[in-house]
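User: Show me a protein chain along with its predicted structure.
Assistant: Here is one chain, sequence first, then structure tokens.
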Amino acid sequence: MILTLDVGNTQILGGVFDDDKLVLQFRKNVRESFSSDEIGLFLKNVLRENDFDPNDVEDISFCSVVPDRNHSLMNGIRKYFDMEPFFLEPGVKTGLKIKYKNPHEVGSDRIANAVAATRLHPHQNLIIVDFGTATTFCVISKSSEYLGGVIIPGIRISMESLEKRTAKLPRVEIKASEASYGKTTVESIQVGLYHGQIGMIKEITKNITNEAFHGVKPLIIGTGGFSALFANAGLFDVVDSNLVLYGLLETLKMNRSINDTDSAEIENS
């Protein structure tokens, strides 16, 4: 049994794999820092509450975009699971050729998404749109070159910004909207948040398709916490909210395997 963890700015997304099958997925809100004991006990408890024995965990793979949390997470895993976890960080084997000017700048969650997408959809040009704290785009060629990306404010950040920086606009439920305009303040915000993301995604994917792939349509994948909200918006060929977890499993297998001749290290052109 393999435990995978994606440590984000506002949440930890976790997954349990048994024989390469995702058998449990869970989330934990983490707006503040946590101790090694807190995270270790949480992980053990969430496994037990879902009828999994923590002693059956054979390995743990994680990525993180919050460096301040890595120390506590590593120590919590060492203390409560008695193992050294695999940390997806620059320099590990991924099978990708990173074309960023500085490959170390690419978030490890985006690398995990790219690894999973290239394994699940080999030999295809890809655009991955991840709805997290930020909405991010990964651009990947059919030869597994990570060409670059785009980062825009996420839908929740946009909503919180309106609430905090205006005197009268309230916090609203984030939801899909078929209407093109609202008839109340709340509806107007909801329409704006939803269709604003759709408009940005359509424009950005169109421009990437023209610039990176010479107008030939790539496979467009939606993932992340809010991806289901846009599943019927006509934006994506595939929606897979757990893409990062599969990427963590794949990179773990690449780097723990003795026979790793088919895996390429991160490189810069």
